[in-house]
Predict the structure.
Amino acid sequence: EAQVTQNPRYLITVTGKKLTVTCSQNMNHEYMSWYRQDPGLGLRQIYYSMNVEVTDKGDVPEGYKVSRKEKRNFPLILESPSPNQTSLYFCASGMAVSYEQYFGPGTRLTVT
Amino acid sequence: QQPVQSPQAVILREGEDAVINCSSSKALYSVHWYRQKHGEAPVFLMILLKGGEQKGHDKISASFNEKKQQSSLYLTASQLSYSGTYFCGTEIRGSQGNLIFGKGTKLSVKP
């Protein structure tokens, strides 16, 4: 089954404790991206990757890191999480940016 | 740079029509439309790449006015299953890869 998976689905953590949210797709997609969703603000792009080893900042990259060492994986790293990073995070993938994007199920992160 | 969607919310009766607009201040390469139901991930509806192009998806269609940097989503004879939040996503010319979404339009269809 074609899908984008994210782990964990829910996470409660404390300020400053490094965490990684994994994202994996099984559709051989070139393009992958991360978004955060906050009430009333829509989906805001954090980082995107056009291909392996190629990553670029989106609109809200501060406080986040990503890597794309393999085509299928695109982890999101929060090295020192803060409460303002409490949000719902979505990973997405597509053949390219100008194609249908498939979203993962989301990760709800709470930073206390 | 975030595109502006209007209206912010709309309530319909089953069978009524609705139009959701998406407007950008930048020249656009493409416009995407997605629907998100409560507690779920966004789901792709359609993408428009050319000026004036109109695409359809069952009773949902969209247009893209490249000169005005505007797109509209048309929902005809709405069904209960159309309820959700609709997002437009825009690719700005010269910034391919950066997909910028609007804040969304909440659509509620009542029996």
User: Anything to note?
Assistant: The radius of gyration of chain B is 13 Å. The longest strand of chain B covers residues 28-36. Chain B has a mean pLDDT of 91. The CA atoms of residues 30 and 49 of chain B lie 5 Å apart.
